[in-house]
Amino acid sequence: KKSSVNEGAFISERYKMAFMKFLGTIIICLPVILGQILHYNVSEESPLGTMIGNIATDANITSSDLTMEFIFLSQSNPLTSLFHLEEKSGSLSVGMRIDRESLSECKFQTECLLNLDVICRNSGSFYQKLELKIKILDINDNSPTFPEDSARLSVSEGSLVGTSFPIEGAVDRDGGHFSVNLYRVVPETAPFSVQFQKNVDGSSLVRLILKKTLDREQQKSYQFQIVAEDGGNPANVGSLVVFVDVLDINDHQPVFSQTHYNLTVDEDVAVNTTILTLTARDEDEGLNGDVIYSLSPRQDEKILKLFQVVPTSGSLQVKESLIFEPGKQYRIIVEASDRAKQPLMSQTQVTVNVRDTHNNPPRIKVDLLSNTDKAQILESASPNAPIAHVTVDDPDTGYNGKINCSIQSEKFQLQKFNVLEYKVVVAQALDREVQSEYRVTVVCQDEGNPPLNASSTFNVTVLDENDHSPIFTKPSYVVQTQEDNNIGASLIRVSASDKDIGKNAEITYRLQSSKYNFLIDPRSGLISAQFRLDREETPLITLGVLAVDGGSPARTGTTSVIIKITDINDNKPEFQNQSFEFAIQENAPKYSSVGLLVATDKDENEKITFSLLPQYNGGIPFEILPNGTIRTTEVLDRETIANYQFSVVATDSGSPPQQSSVKISIDVLDMNDNAPIFMFPSDNNSTVIISYQTLPHTVIAHLDTRDIDQGLNSTVTYVTRDRNYSHIFQLNSLSGRLILMKQLTTAEIGKYKLSIIAQDKGTPPRTSERTMTIVVTSQPIPEEAAEADDHKYFLIAIAISCVTIVIAVVIILTICLIKRADRLRQKYHEQHKSEPYIEIPAQRFHQNAIDSLNCSGMLDKDTPELQLYPSLHNSQISTKGITANLGQDDKIHHQLSPFTLHHVLGTSTSYRGGSKLARKGGDNSSDRSGEITPSDSGRGGSEDDLNTSILLSHCSSIDFENNKNNTPRKELSFSSFNKPRTSVQGNSFNAKNNVLQTKLPPPPRNVFGGFQRQESLYSDAGSFCGHDDSTTTSGSYVLDQEDIFDGLNSSLHRGQCIV
User: Fold this and answer.
1) CA 564 to chain centre
2) Does the residue 175 lie in any domain?
3) Tally of CB atoms within 10 A around 161
4) Rounded mean pLDDT of 115-123?
5) Are residues 159 and 130 in the same domain?
6) What residues have CB less than 8 Å from 761, skipping those under 6 apart?
7) What is d(CA 324, CA 677) in angstroms, rounded to the nearest whole number?
8) Which of 757, 756, 765 lies closest to 713 in space, CA to CA?
9) CB atoms within 10 A of CB 152
10) Which spans are transmembrane here (predicted)?
């Protein structure tokens, strides 16, 4: 009595712990029920098949359920086509090429995030929605691009340094760091720099900045490039060629050839005679450089009356007759102006002396210091350097013999050396490159009346010095050439000039050091390649070229040569894989898409066309579209051909085209398009004849069908419509064996017609129906059969004895375990955070092995193993070896899963008939009460039943409904495709009759044919065994030795547990 009190307290505490675990499970699973958000990252342009993640693993959805599948919620969403979701495993991978810049969801977005919904479900009640957030990572797959290849600007030479000129910026389809990050001017010697401002929308405002003043008179135009670089590594670039025309402004005034003119005319000179032609030069162009001449109005009116100047030619003419006045000179101011809107003007003075015709002019002698016919002077000569010696004399006397000399040149001057001796010296710095030769005139005039003058002219040659570096004709050269060139073939000729002359202008060409083997002719500047160019390896090569003159020290000029290598078709298309494997469901409509082939070509002609090899045209039910799509040309039948293998050719668009081929393998997947076909019973053979003396549980017929489908689509179960004969005949739904259930009497001799339905396990299932006839005759069983039956009953008796011993051991061991658990209950009170259990470890069968028996139980962890050794009908079952020998017909080997007894503590184990079992709802006497024993209702069990059956029941006050979720292991299930909680109720195994009795929740279809009762899994009173042993056979199922293993074999392979 004390033991019962302790046992009740122990069970009550376990109820509390079970409830707390159940509540915790609900709280933990609440986010799973409401849905989860999974985040993934994948780079654009990732190869097809690139693994992104496993939804099942990331969402912590772990199940061995073969019907669990993952599908996109909205199949019409175009984003789902970018990804491939494996329905069974939940693996998410790249399904097609992803171009981040082409996705409308990502345009003008800093972060490209795609939202997809996935449903996880099975064939049962499990259903969960998962939200996927897939971030598409940008790669640097686009180069900056300017709207135009070139731009032309007109810039005034009067523009100030720092003036900006807007240029339309480059656009890069990539975003973030891979967008345009830098602009630069090439070459850097150009008088412009570049500034840019990056806009929010990814565009950029680019400005050319003038970094030094322009002078049209020195250079009329410029050509350079603006190069845009993105932030990639290596960076992608785009370029814009800029042409700048320098516009002229009126920044130069006309300059007279001399600042002062001095001339003498005879007093009798005729009117309109040209006495002097003035010349002025303007460096500007157009109207800004067109010079007109005039007399300054701000001078003596007498000058304007006596002289005039022709505006266009600059001829100074006598307007009226001159009157000699002793010592009188006319100083005429002549103006030269251009024709600009705001003209510039310069003046010169012309001194006109009126000569007396009776006076003698002076005589001049010039001696050049260079001892040549021309005076020579280095351009680097310093001021006051002498170039000539001048001697003058005049035969006249008095004032007529007094001589004054002057020189008409800005670069030179006359210095008095002695009486009537002068030296000509350098007055200003010389530049041979500006003017290499000067004409110098020395004018001497006496003081006679009128004074007479004389002049002497000589030439001065400016000698060169090496003060200029060579200059190439272009700041950079661009040349295009094809790859696979001939070694040594010429590419381009560069040319440079030097403003110096002679040896200082003798130019030798050289190449700057480079990793490429190019050669340049030192004299002609002709560049050639000494190796074969490969565009796929290097599409662009830049060389530095030097021009070195022959001066001492030598001067050097530089330029760059950009070699653009054009493509030829020298590469074959390359397939993404060495071979492709696809699968398609049979009976798919004509022109269904099977898959997409992907190939690349290193050449520029990347357009690839796919086609079948000629020998396959018309020979296979597939066609290849030019874009690589494989389509069916007819409806496929897996039962005719299950696999197709052929080759596909990829051809590029080059000339001549290049080709490559790849092998394709296409598996035709099975669908349930064939119903089972009865082999027996058949149209010609549908009758079974037995004697009324045939022993019960004898297999009287074996149904046989054929289903040419595959897998579950070809797995057939059997069921009969005729329940009226269920007490006589029993059909095994798995093996198709028809079993005689009772001993027939002479009154039951006759014909019985059974309607048999064969149904496969496809979705949806297909069925076939056949009617068979069982003829019971009065013919006796042969004597040999009776003797065999006597031997059979002998073996059954031995088996019953073994089972009895095992049950006794189990009862004793259970009592010991309960007492030990009660003693240790206090010690382990703190450790009962989870339900304890005892488990019999899995072993292997060695002969006819039952598949995996997996049940849950609740025992202390330290409780010894519970071992059952029932002996039944020439069989031996051991929980240590878990071996069952039931005859010698079947040899099956399987792995046994852990076998655990449910709620052993607090339960009692008894033989059938040994104690009265609690009933469910008082159901004692119904002909179809749902009992699970083969006894007749109201009469108790038969002698064989009482002696041979084993009943493991839980006849206690445990509320099984409230404790069914306590175990951490899965509940027993007969169907892997339906996952509600299931258990076994009222178990009984009869060694003589081989009765396997189970209680199932409503499954998709009956596992054991049409004889299974569908009742509540748990009784109203919470009792685990809620039925009497004395009702009809309704709800029971009878198997022979082979039935046990066939049924277990089929069920346990699908994760079921049968007790």
Assistant:
1) 30
2) yes
3) 11
4) 88
5) no
6) 712, 713, 715, 716, 717
7) 149
8) 765
9) 12
10) 21-42, 793-818
Averaged pLDDT of the chain:
76
Would strands 437-446 and 518-520 be described as parallel, antiparallel, or unpaired?
unpaired
Contact 1038, 881 (CB under 8 A): no
Q: What is the DSSP string of 45-90?
A: TPPTT-EEEEHHHHTT-----TT-EEEES-TT-GGGGGEEE-TTT-
Region of poorest pLDDT, from 344-348, 512-516, 638-642, 993-997? 993-997
Question: What gap in Å lies between CA 921 and CA 929, rounded to an integer?
Answer: 11
- C-alpha closest to that of 793 among 943, 939, 998, 987: 943
What are the pLDDT digits (tens) for 388-432? 999 998 766 677 778 899 998 889 999 998 888 999 999 999 998
Residue found under tokens 């390896």: 537
Determine contact, residues 970/22, Cβ cutoff 8 Å: no
The Cα–Cα gap between 226 and 182 comes to 10
Identify the CATH number of the domain in which residue 741 sits. 2.60.40.60
Whether 993 is in a domain gets the answer no
Averaged pLDDT, 825-847: 48
Q: How many domains does the chain have?
A: 6
Note the pLDDT of residue 692: 92
SS3 content of the chain, % helix, strand, coil (to 5): 15, 35, 50
Which residue shows structure tokens 């419509």? Answer: 721
Position 937 in a domain: no
pTM (predicted TM-score): 0.35
Report the relative pairing of strands 260-266 and 345-355 from DSSP bridges: parallel
Structure tokens at 1010: 């049409």
| pLDDT tens digit sequence for 504-534 | 999 999 999 988 999 999 999 999 999 999 8
* β-pair partners for 421: 391, 418
Q: State pLDDT tens for residues 588-601.
A: 999 999 999 999 98
Task: Give the dihedral sign, CA 913/916/917/921.
Answer: positive
The kind and range of the H/E element at 788 are helix 783-824
CA separation for the pair 711, 709 (Å, rounded): 7
Within a domain: residue 108? yes
